[in-house]
Amino acid sequence: MNGRSRAQGPASESATTLTTTIVSPTTDRTHVATLEALSRLLRDEGIARANGNCDAWWASCFDAAVGYFASTGIPFSADDIRELIPAADHPNRVGARFHAANRAGLIEPTGFALSRARSRHAGVLRTWRGVR
After folding, report:
1. Which is the most buried residue in 23, 39, 42, 107, by most CB within 10 A?
2. Buried b / exposed e across 16-34, counting CB within 10 Å, b at 16+?
3. Least confident of 26-30, 53-57, 127-131
């Protein structure tokens, strides 16, 4: 082009419309999954991978710390756990272990707090408490 900008038509002419359903990768191609269901499947896959190849010793330390805080009945966050155990080899491990504890019925979400860790720059953390 010669450096001049072309006038664009309405956004609806140039934008592609995304649908909220996709065909899942099955052999019969008749099963249709929503994006929400697909998101859950991908989330669960990532969590399974993070838990599946996790160092067993670190996971046992994390689970023991969660069990301790759950027994107190007071809300706690990942920052509280980090103060008791060594750092994980990957940050996804922490969320995967919290998810596993939640699914096991040991803890439940109670709200959110700002992280005290310098590396998190006051990022938002979920708070948990033990299920009675």
Report:
1. 107
2. eeeeeeeeeeeeeeeeebe
3. 26-30
Chain segment 11-38, per-residue pLDDT in tens: 444 444 444 555 555 554 545 568 888 8
Asked if 98 and 126 count as a contact pair (C-beta separation under 8 A), the reply is yes
Residue 97 class from Cβ within 10 Å (0-12 exposed, 13-18 middle, 19+ buried)?
buried
Q: What span, in angstroms and rounded, lies between the C-alpha atoms of 92 and 53?
A: 11
Domain boundaries, the chain: 55-130
Secondary structure of the chain: what % helix, strand, coil (to 5)?
Answer: 45, 15, 40
Query: Fold for domain 55-130?
Result: Arc Repressor Mutant, subunit A (1.10.10)
Give the pLDDT confidence of 92-123 residue by residue, as tens digits.
899 999 999 999 999 999 999 999 998 889 99
